[in-house]
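## Example record

The block below lists the input lines for one assembly entry, exactly as stored, with component labels intact.
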Amino acid sequence: AQSVTQLGSHVSVSEGALVLLRCNYSSSVPPYLFWYVQYPNQGLQLLLKYTTGATLVKGINGFEAEFKKSETSFHLTKPSAHMSDAAEYFCAVSDRGYSTLTFGKGTMLLVSP
Amino acid sequence: DARVTQTPRHKVTEMGQEVTMRCQPILGHNTVFWYRQTMMQGLELLAYFRNRAPLDDSGMPKDRFSAEMPDATLATLKIQPSEPRDSAVYFCASGSPGPGGTYEQYFGPGTRLTVT
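Predicted structure tokens for the full assembly:
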């Protein structure tokens, strides 16, 4: 069965600082990979996804993630944090050809002025 | 702007009562998912449907939970009888196959259920 590990339940950064949220997956075959964001009292919104092709994926709001097969990782980054980025971020995986997602526990991003 | 809608957004009920949550998937999406989110367990998949047929409900407590899709525009999740441990946010998501068989799931705003 797939599993997803997000290192750090909370990450704090200052406004303007680099954002790095970590995600590792366990799978014998490279899966499809996703990052979702959840703002307070809202549903999850897709930030970006990796399926095939270029391993550096760009998403909305200036976020990007890089698929590294050798490290089984799909870390999310943003060069400069904004206050509006404060939210919970979820990494998710699905087996190729399947529709269900397995989510990580989530990382709460806190941005201070 | 197509969205998944869920009703009610909030529900407070007493233990033992029946709870029904409704979801309207995005028009044209053929797969509907129900998730539960709690602080302790995170996001759990309860059940999902494709073309209105249930494919997997192994995540649901069978004795009290039931999920149906009476038609392509409505999915329901029922809890009878409800218990305090059912307190959570319940999300519906919908999607359709994209390139390579991947699915993007679009989430509704959730129903926050409190059982006292």
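Chain B has a mean pLDDT of 93. Chain B is about 0% helix and 55% strand.
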